[in-house]
Amino acid sequence: MEHSSEAQAGGDSELWQVASLIRSKNAGPFEITIDIMCDNAAAFERLRNSRLMDPLLYAELYKTDVQAVDIFAHSESLAIKASFPRPTPSGSRTDTDVYGGQFHSLLVRLPVLQRGDERPPHRDAATAMPDPETVDES
Amino acid sequence: MARAKAVAATGMIGTGFLEESLVAASVGADVIACDGGSSDPGPYYLGSGEPQFAPGAIRHDVERMLAVALERNIPLILGSAGTAGGDPHVAIVESIVRDIAASRGWHFSLATIRSEVSADKIVRAFERGQITPLAAAPAITSESIYGSSRIVAMMGVEPIQRALREGAQVVLTGRSSDVSIFAAVPLALGIPPGVAYHAGKIIECGAASASHRLYPDGIAATMDEAGFTVEPPNPDFRCTPQSVASHTLYENANPFRLVEPGGVLDTASCTYEQSGPRAVLVRGSKFEPNPDYTVRLEAATLAGYRAISVAGIRDPLVLRQLDSFLERVEGAAVAKVNARLGLDRSEYSLRWRTYGADGTLGALEPTPAPCHEVGLVIDVVAKTQESANAVLEAAWYTALHHPIAEYSGGVSHLAFPFSPPALPAGPVYEFSLNHVWHLDDPCSPFPATYQEL
């Protein structure tokens, strides 16, 4: 898979085509934080206007209380950051990911609409993403 | 005008670094420091008293840090000893330091600052209302605190500054905040706390704040009253405004407000500019002091003993009914355990982790259908290792031969890569505090001992 310049310029794309890094990590043993980095200002602006800024997206994907989701747009590092409580503390009996390093995987193929584009995104049957209708305010 | 230079030898003691990088970075340095711990690798290390890294790896890094620091007469601060900073972890690293000094014939004054706290002390503070929860903290009681295997408090800069005032040349700490080991000396030299804490946060992972860190190595921050410049000594690495700014985000829930024991670092109005080919100047870091001084507490509690079995499943007839197959297997295994071992289902946990289906994300997995094969991890935690082993044996043996409707006659559904198919995995700990302790004296929980080596 390659980053396409067409995807960065506009049109519907998946998040990995717009961002330069998508990662998750523990923020202490009781919280997860997801960083979505860009390597150019246009991509950052596009993501800043996407549903990555909507707490409902994370609440649904990560089955957590929407009130517990914090989202930040950090323009100095061209990054969107979302933090929320872990489903279970790091390393507890029911945990599946001690470092929290794979929580971001649910976002990698997230459809990113061109701003103002009302068309529903193309959805690949093999990837289950949240129904945009349920998380997109538009 | 106050000036200070702090050097991070590498991101974590035990991961390695280039000696020439530390030699280059230490020119004009006021402190060399390196972190030795984290809660990232999970609760096991805090609970068990073992360090994550092998003693040989710790010794390798510490010996080379000591060589540079002693030759140039620069204070060396080794933080969060032995991964978790409990008394056994501190003792292991202290014995490594003593051993290096003896074998190399080096002489220096060593301060060792402990951070393990007794449950008694925490319960008394809890009952006085001096223990309060952080985000997503577990509910606690005096009884649950007494049940902890080990509790550590995370020190700020004050106990480190006290040890340096007492004349220590090398300071070994129990659990310390990531930035305190880098900020202690600059603060004492008159650098404003916003600058000192932010610089500490940027360099605490070593060269991780460079744009493409190829391997673990060190980094330096030069501070004055207006801001700080961060630059890797390694000519192969380069800091950019984005790489430095993005490190402010790393491992924190909130990138604009970073809570330290004595207040909050506010980075919201910071600017990051390229000030040299590989250097970045950061300005605008602020600090809001909080007179209510708090230290973070970490605790691990023994949850039982684990035994696991790893097996592959490739038969499409089993895979197409995987969930219901495993439910039937579990029902049969639980009945056997109850009949033969007298153990009730509530006395152990039994989990079927299905890699290739939903092993990584568990209940969060939106596409839990198995692919062409599944890696099964049967995970048992029980009150003793013997009962975990016994429950696991019933579980794997039942799964191996449990019938499915499509076949008549004997079957073997699990491909075990190992003999024996079951592995005892030892004690299981769980993090049991995510709280802060309100202190009158920032040094009181952190006793220091001094020795001349």
What's the quick description here?
Chain A is an alpha+beta fold and 138 residues long.
Widest beta sheet: strand line-up of chain B: 12-13-9-8-1-2-3-7-4-19
Q: Rounded to an integer, what's the Rg of chain A over CA atoms?
A: 15 Å
User: Major sheet of chain A: size, sense and barrel closure?
Assistant: 4 strands, antiparallel
Number of strands of chain B: 19
Topology:
The complex is a heterodimer of chains A (about 140) and B (about 450).
Chain A: H1 5-9, E1 13-14, H2 15-18, E2 21-26, E3 31-37, H3 41-48, H4 55-61, E4 70-74, E5 79-85, E6 111-112, H5 132-135
Chain B: E1 3-8, H1 19-25, E2 31-37, H2 44-48, H3 55-72, E3 76-83, H4 87-104, E4 109-113, H5 119-127, E5 131-133, H6 142-146, E6 150-153, H7 158-165, E7 170-173, H8 180-188, H9 193-203, E8 219-224, E9 227-231, H10 241-249, E10 257-260, E11 263-266, E12 271-274, E13 280-283, E14 286-289, E15 293-313, H11 316-319, H12 322-341, E16 348-355, E17 374-382, H13 385-401, E18 422-439, E19 448-452
Parallel strand pairs in B: 1-2, 2-3, 3-7, 4-7
Antiparallel strand pairs in B: 1-8, 4-19, 5-18, 6-15, 8-9, 9-13, 10-11, 11-14, 12-13, 15-17, 15-18, 16-17
Task: Describe the overall structure.
The complex is a heterodimer of chains A (138) and B (453). Chain A is of the alpha+beta class. Chain A is built from 5 helices and 6 strands, in the order H-E-H-E-E-H-H-E-E-E-H. Chain A has helices at 5-9, 15-18, 41-48, 55-61, 132-135; strands spanning 13-14, 21-26, 31-37, 70-74, 79-85, 111-112. The longest helix of chain A is centred in the N-terminal third of the chain and has 8 residues, at 41-48. The radius of gyration of chain A is 15 Å and the shape is elongated. In chain B, strands 12-13-9-8-1-2-3-7-4-19 form a 10-stranded mixed sheet, with helices on both faces. In chain B, strands 5, 6, 15, 16, 17 and 18 form a 6-stranded antiparallel sheet that branches. In chain B, strands 10-11-14 form a 3-stranded antiparallel sheet, with helices on one face. Chain B contains 13 helices and 19 strands. In chain B, helix 3 packs across helix 4 (87-104) and helix 12 crosses helix 13 (385-401). At the A-B interface, strand 3, strand 4 and strand 5 of A face helix 10, strand 15, strand 16 and strand 18 of B.
